[in-house]
Amino acid sequence: MKGFLKYVNVTEIVRPIGQLLAFSCGSAVVMSAIAIGIALMLDKTAVGVDLLDRYNVSVYTYTMINLPQVVIDGLTIGFVYAAIALGYTMVYGVLEFINFAHSEIFAVGAFVGVELLIALDSSGMLAGASLGMAYSYLILAILMGMLAAGGLAMTVERVAYRPLRGASRLVPLISAIGVSFFLQDVIRLVESLTTGQFNRIMPTFGNFDQRIVFGKFAMGTSNITLGISVKSIVVIVSAVLMLVALNYLVNATRIGKAIRAVAQDRNTASLMGINVNRIISTTFLVGGMLGGAAGVLYALKFTRIDPFVGFFPGLKAFTAAVLGGIGNLTGALLGGIVLGMLETFAGSYMGIFTMGAAGSEYKDIFAFSILILVLIFRPQGLMGKNVGQKA
């Protein structure tokens, strides 16, 4: 055991886990306090009277009963946003431009994983599969999505970005937008030629749709069940493992040291013997693999995907990266979790707090409002710009 610890930097494993716990607890406490405060202010108003008539419960009681479930759901989607945001952050840290094609790389990973599972289901391998085999098939789908997305990200870098590396920043940005639209149409073309369908549904197998119930609470004339689905646990655990692995790669390995060196000064890194092109390709590979895995996890969580599935998650992950501090790995984690919490709280309580005038469909307004506010008042993000960890 001592020999193993000699070669493993335990600090770089424990530290990101501690950060994730701190960010999760901190964002949950802050958002819960805001929701409870609003509920107390509205309890004696027309909103409270309306809720009392409909559910025989006060606004405060409704908020408190639903609060644990909202926190669980917010963490689930927050970790997915964080995993996607890290892809944006890594590329920006090295090349200082936004890879807007990352959302389509995310979509490709989702399609590869889902199509693999659909093929396995059509062959009868998923039906009646044991629990161990079901998880093995899911891991296989995630790995295939990671390989496809990582390989595509490297190809995009080589074909669309490397020839423009010496140009002004606007040129590769326009190229990234063009690649994004190109990949969307490629997905549509491939799906129309192979399946004739644009919308694909994640097969039902294993125990992923089962729900672990923690308890039931009376709310007026009805009951509220507090629980978490197995697939949400899978999403959270998988995202945490990826985030910890990425942190270890960047901060505790030779490749990570080279990535940070290239991010800090490409010319000096080249003079020190680092193959800059190879490191940049590796950065795209790692970011693409994260996006591909997040795509499969997103499909597992929300079941349905289409060629445009990467647009809104990618845009929100970009918002999360800007919120935390673009180019900062820790900031991407914080931004993803905070944005997931904010979106879930808004979607869960907005309809009640506004008496149905603004429902959950308006939750996206909060994400993009945060982006505008951050760019206006704190363009460096919540975590600032950490040059030492800029990868």
TrEMBL record:
One of its GO terms (cellular component) is plasma membrane. The chain crosses the membrane at residues 20-42, 70-93, 105-128, 134-154, 166-183, 228-250, 279-300, 320-342, 362-381. It is a multi-pass membrane protein. Coiled coil: none annotated. One of its GO terms (biological process) is L-isoleucine import across plasma membrane. InterPro entries: ABC_transp_permease (IPR001851), BCAA_transport_permease (IPR052157). Keywords: Amino-acid transport, Cell inner membrane, Cell membrane, Membrane, Transmembrane, Transmembrane helix, Transport. It comes from Desulfopila aestuarii DSM 18488. It is found in: Cell membrane. It comes from the Bacteria. This is Amino acid/amide ABC transporter membrane protein 1, HAAT family. Belongs to the binding-protein-dependent transport system permease family. LivHM subfamily. Signal peptide: none annotated.
